[in-house]
Amino acid sequence: MASILELKRKSLQIRKELMTMIHAAKGGHTGGSLSNTDILTALYYEVMKHDPNRPKLPERDRFVASKGHCVESLWCILADLGYFPKEELSTFSQFGTRLIGHPNNKVPGVEMNTGALGHGLAVSVGMALAAKRDGNPYRVYCLMGDGEQAEGSVWEAAMAGAHYKLDNLVGIIDRNRLQISGSTEDVMALEPLDRKWEAFGWHVVTVDGHDYGELLKAFNSVPEVSGKPTLLLANTIKGKGVSFAENKPEWHHHVPNDEQLKQAHEELDAELAALADEQERSGTHA
Amino acid sequence: MPNTIPNRQAMCETLLELAENSRDIMVLASDSRGSAAMAPFAKRFPEQFVETGIAEQNIVGIAAGLAHSGKTPFVTSPACFLSMRSIEQIKVDVAYSNTNVKLIGISGGISYGALGMSHHSVQDIAVTRAIPGLAVVLPADRHETKKMTRAIAEYEGGVYVRIGRNPVEDVYEEDDDREFVLGQAVRLKDGSDLTLIAAGETVRIALDAAKLLEQSGIQARVLNMHTIKPLDTEAIVAAAEETGAIVTLEEHSVYGGLGAAVAEVTSQHCPVPLKILGIPDEPAIAGKTAEVFRHYGLSAENVKELAERLASVKMR
After folding, report:
1. ipTM score here?
2. Cα separation, B142 vs B164, whole angstroms
3. Which tens digit of pLDDT belongs to each residue from A26-71?
4. Which residue of A has its CA nearest to B52?
5. Tens digit of pLDDT for each residue in B135-179?
6. Residue A1 clears pLDDT 90, i.e. is over it
7. Is there a contact between A129 and B67 if contact means CB atoms under 8 Å apart?
């Protein structure tokens, strides 16, 4: 089991790498990838059963990136775990690469091609339903954006997940409250989002999406209610960890310049140093 | 005696047989188990049946998830909705993600007759054949539907199939031993004066027209182009080279369907006089299939007249 300190350290490393990658490629979804880095770190380094050496392991837990623009953090995590060589990250968005700007199942570890919003939850319902019908124990985790909640197809799938009592299915909303045009509540009001999901028959758990204690507690207690799918409403900060990108809608797909990359790395390094101090004080060594 | 068994019923019978030996064969319906004639399947194999309610985007997404988990899902939903409302799911979750989903567009073409353009699907071939990696199939009768159902169940990959609502006259004898091969046209009748190329419910019309033509001394070749994609280009080029003129018949818009697919081949490889018969660019007129077909010239008599004119002007 990874300690919370280790997970935090890992997420800072992933944030540094994704900033480097986006800077080099001169393109990418910076803000959204930073907001869901902690969710993905918790899933891939602690919660999900998976094996980078056997990406098609039948009993693996499935991850579906319905918000396909989380791909920058996903690529960095899959590379770090050994699904593909880390050097390949430098090909991100380059001519002919398989590391494109949305999940691509030519890359080991990616289940489904996504990018168009409102698709992932229905696919996840199908995967979870197959597991139920076959008596397989795997779970399905589906990450959605909050802007994505305006897609009607999300709610078709929400209805089906509850109808088929898929308590092996976990929907996660990266609730950073921003989409490309501004505040989600200004663009198309979503609140009360928790009550909407509850009304659709899901067990809703609200957490701080950057707090590993809360994230792990929520993931580890699934299914808290037998016969109900779980919806993790993860409150996050778009651009989290990079001060000048935090809560700025324009950083949805803004690219850091040389100076900004340097500053981002300095800030994340400072956090890493603070973590090391904390670790020393508590006497644990990772 | 006219056939009374619609293709959808033939498909259900075959799926019931297949499911006896495989628990991975699944059928999905969007409140459409009755119109898809899949109620017997739902009853016999409840664990292999999934109802999604009236939600066409969802049904394709769920099927993709099932297929990703090793299932062979048959999505049975009206062609008009399946090919339009869920087209992005077909593009991304099925074709792009390489999931083994069989999309069965039921009540296709103008089957719904008087229900209007909302319920007609005469753009489905145009849309689906533009999607990379997706096979597109229209069986000609109940016998071919059975063979095709087995063939696509074995085939690994996404397929869009369009079948009509009403019984169609048999094209094949019950004991016809020709195999159904995806992507391979069936030469139903040989001839050297011109070629009639049809798919789905218009194959019978082409055959009947060929018989009439024979009476006036014109030998028409008849190709059943059951697979629009991957297209049997060899058969088309051979038809152009050997017979010199082509008439295509389809229950589809004259834009983007079988006729367009044939024209793409002949114009580049062997240009010959070509006439595309289908539904013109307008909301189709109300009526029963035979009435609507006749209105737009999809009748054996009209095809005969047209073919006679074409055969007389053909260049070689």
Report:
1. 0.96
2. 11
3. 999 999 899 999 999 999 999 999 999 999 999 999 999 999 999 9
4. A160
5. 999 999 999 999 999 999 999 999 999 999 999 999 999 999 999
6. no
7. no
Q: Is the pLDDT of residue A286 over 50?
A: no
Could you tell me the sign of the dihedral formed by the alpha carbons of B283, B288, B291, B297, in that order? positive
pLDDT value at position B164?
Answer: 96
Q: Which helix (H) or strand (E) holds A174?
A: strand A169-175
Contact between B47 and A133 using a beta-carbon 8 Å cutoff? yes
**Residue B240 · residue B272 · CB < 8 Å:** yes
Distance (Å, whole) CA A148 – CA A176: 12
pLDDT computed for residue A284 by the predictor: 56
| Residue B50 contacts A where some CB pair is shorter than 8 Å | yes
Candidate from A116, A130, A163 with C-beta closest to B92: A116
Best interface-test mutation with A: which of B52, B74, B77 has the largest number of A CBs within 10 A?
B52
> Are B61 and A152 an interchain contact pair (Cβ–Cβ within 8 Å)?
no
Interface touch B65/A126, C-beta < 8 Å: yes
Rounded to an integer, what distance in angstroms lies between the CA atom of residue A48 and that of residue A140? Answer: 9
**In chain A, alpha helices (H):** 4-25, 30-35, 37-42, 71-81, 120-134, 152-163, 184-187, 193-199, 212-220, 258-282
State the catalytic residue, choosing from B56, B144, B201, B250.
Answer: B56
Is residue A7 within 8 A of residue A26, CB to CB? The reply is: no
* Number of Cβ atoms within 10 Å of the Cβ of B13: 18
Interchain CB distance below 8 Å, B55 and A159: yes
- Rounded Cα distance, B225 and B196, in Å: 10
- B60 interaction partners in chain A (CB closer than 8 Å): 122
Q: How far apart are CA B180 and CA A185, in angstroms?
A: 55
A6 vs B307: CA distance, rounded Å: 77
Active-site residue flag, B56: yes
One-letter amino acid of B47: E
Instruction: Please tell me if residue A115 touches chain B, with a CB cutoff of 8 Å.
Output: yes
> Which pLDDT tens digit goes with each residue over B63-101?
999 999 999 999 999 999 999 999 999 999 999 999 999
Q: What percent of chain B has pLDDT over 90?
A: 97
Q: Residue written as tokens 């006749």?
A: B294
- Taking the CB of residue B313, how many other CB atoms lie within 10 A of it? 8
Using the Cβ of A116 and the Cβ atoms of chain B, whether some distance falls under 8 Å is answered with yes
